[in-house]
Amino acid sequence: MIHIDDARRLYALHTARTTYAMAVDDAGRLLHLYYGPRTAAARLPQSPHNDPGCHPDLLLQEWPAPGLGDNHAPFFQPEFADGVIAADLRFAGAERSPGKYSLPGLPAFRDGEGAETLRVTLRDELGLTVTLLYGVLPDCDLITRAAIVENTGSAPVTLRGVPSAVLDFARHDLDLITFDGAWAAERTPHRAAVRPGVQGVGSVGGIPTHAHNPFVVLCAPNAGETRGSCWGAALVYSGNYRCQVESAAAGIRLSLGIEPFRFAWTLAPGERFTAPEAAFVYSDAGFGGMSRNFHNAIRRHLVPPRWADPAAPRPVLLNSWEACYFDFDEAKLLALAKAARAAHADLFVLDDGWFKGRDSDTTSLGDWTADRRKLPGGVAGLCRKINALGLDFGIWVEPEAVSPDSDLYRAHPDWALHIPGRPTLEIRHQYTLDFSRADVRENIWQQLCALLDSCPIRYVKWDMNRSLANVYSAALPAARQGEVYHRYVLGVYELQQKLTGRYPDLLLENCAGGGARFDCGMLYYSPQIWTSDNTDALDRQSIQYGTSFCYPPCVMGAHYSTVPNHITGRTASVEARMAAALTGTFGFELDLTAYTGAEIEALHPYVQFYRDHGALLRGGDLYRLAAPDGRGAAWAIAAADGSEAVVFAAGRVLDGRSLPLPFARPGVRYALHAAYTGGHADDAADGDALAALGLPLPDLRGDLPGYLCYIKTEG
């Protein structure tokens, strides 16, 4: 609900449990007042700085502008035709409307019941207008923000930095948590007290990259998993970004938006620029409460509506990559598909190596037609044979890439990003296509349509295996090269929107060398993202743990793989590997033709468990019960009313200890259904005991043991 108090010039956004408020001072500046537990508008404070002569450095502002006394590190940087980089933005009006705004050409959280939008207009009389968009999704305690900058003057204005949102805090005692890592070790949480000066994370690689994620948390020093104040902030964007925190005299400022490096967007008179969306959740119930609100918002209001219902089944798939790599022919694929069918999988996915001349990663990207040496009947012929086995068919593509050794590159070398007069950098023996160009996108679109129209392909894995370099577009003049990075991302969004629009039942999974583009922007188009190329059960505990601070388990691509693991060489039990895979989208990533009939049959209970409890696993509330410590971890997914749950534990956490279950209902009796090798007698326990004393864990031995327990109220 949005509350407007014209007398006080106060604007309050209320969700179920939180309030976000701002006010206009006597000088016409839009100041931030409050973001925290829900409170009545009448109890909100007046602006602490209502003196028109107050130094701008001491103001908590909703949209700070540079050049007129605010000496924070500038994020918003409008450059006027006379070279001035400054703006004097004053309040010009506000209006409330039902429903949540959308952003043409950009991903954004979708509308929902009770959603509202507040539009606030700020104006610089010299020719600039900024419209701040605030969305309220009350069921998830989610506040979203975006901004539209319009040139209302008579000369061009160049934007050299545009934040999506700025959030000021009148305090200095906060911790910052970022989610960092590398290939095969993504999104590890790092926490430290905010220090004086500027700190933050971001990317200049054209994608978020493996190094950092466009999601951060600010929290009270005493905040933990189950208690304490925390503010989560996610950028709904898939390109260069910056999440920046600055501690200065007035307090702490958090800014999120497109990375200013190599960004310059010129607006002719009358033109507008729309900044990507930022999303915020406040919780006083610790990281767990914050995460569950983000999870609900992503499931209900961000992923494609076709996949938003947790009860909508997702296929159990087998991906061919770790089974075959590039070394396969049709007979080998069909044998693998038969083994997948014997394991009760639903979908067979043909990964890299299927297109002409692709025997290694040195060639053929951009030429999306079948290699007839490997597939005599083409993709359509293989698809028919896979379908005849009772399996759906899926395929891997990397549409943004082109190999120097490809027909596409030989015909159109100018279609690759390339700086004139300089050698083009090869990464992974490939270049990046200039997706800022409509003709490039159209060529790839026609190739994808020809592929998807040739046979019933139910799943596409869209990969992107390198960061951008040599960023220069042959289709744009020199003065507009600062637009290429952003136009590239808009091009990716456009093509994925067309893809899912033309093929509405297609299950699209995004990937970028594993988890290098795991962000809310991509989830608008695909309901799942490959979490990491590392499928090791122990490493996945840490990777999926950090990922879960913002993103729900149901969007995390997770597969059961072989041991020793292909990346780490580590051995883990069936139960530990299943715990990691069942927590995500669930599938297989191994050569099942090497399994005996008995070994394949031993997988059946887990596949059936996923089918029986898929709605719970995809739509339940996540509780992180024991954080990964390099030896093990424990977590649970529970129904919102606490009536049922699945508890997972793996590793040395299984030392005979007990795990308190905070979702267990007092006065209720629960039946416990354990499932792990060696068997465990079903048991029962009172909710009071499970909450206070915990669920007893068995004392297991071996390399990374695992434990899965389904609990449900009796009667």
Outline the secondary-structure elements.
Blueprint: E1 2-5, E2 10-14, E3 18-24, E4 30-37, E5 78-80, E6 90-98, E7 116-124, E8 128-137, E9 142-151, E10 157-159, E11 163-169, E12 175-182, E13 185-193, E14 197-203, E15 215-219, E16 230-236, E17 241-248, E18 251-258, E19 265-267, E20 272-274, E21 277-283, H1 286-301, E22 317-319, H2 321-324, H3 330-342, E23 347-350, H4 378-388, E24 392-397, E25 401-402, H5 407-411, E26 431-432, H6 438-453, E27 457-462, H7 484-502, E28 507-510, H8 520-523, E29 528-530, H9 537-547, E30 556-557, E31 560-561, H10 574-582, E32 587-589, H11 597-601, H12 604-619, E33 621-626, E34 632-638, E35 644-651, E36 658-659, E37 669-675, E38 683-686, H13 687-692, E39 695-696, E40 706-713
Parallel strand pairs: 22-23, 22-32, 23-24, 24-27, 27-28, 28-29, 29-30, 31-32
Antiparallel strand pairs: 1-2, 2-3, 3-4, 5-10, 6-7, 7-8, 8-9, 9-20, 9-21, 10-19, 11-18, 12-13, 12-15, 14-17, 15-16, 16-21, 17-18, 25-26, 33-34, 34-35, 35-40, 36-39, 37-38, 37-40
Helix pairs in contact: 6-7, 9-10
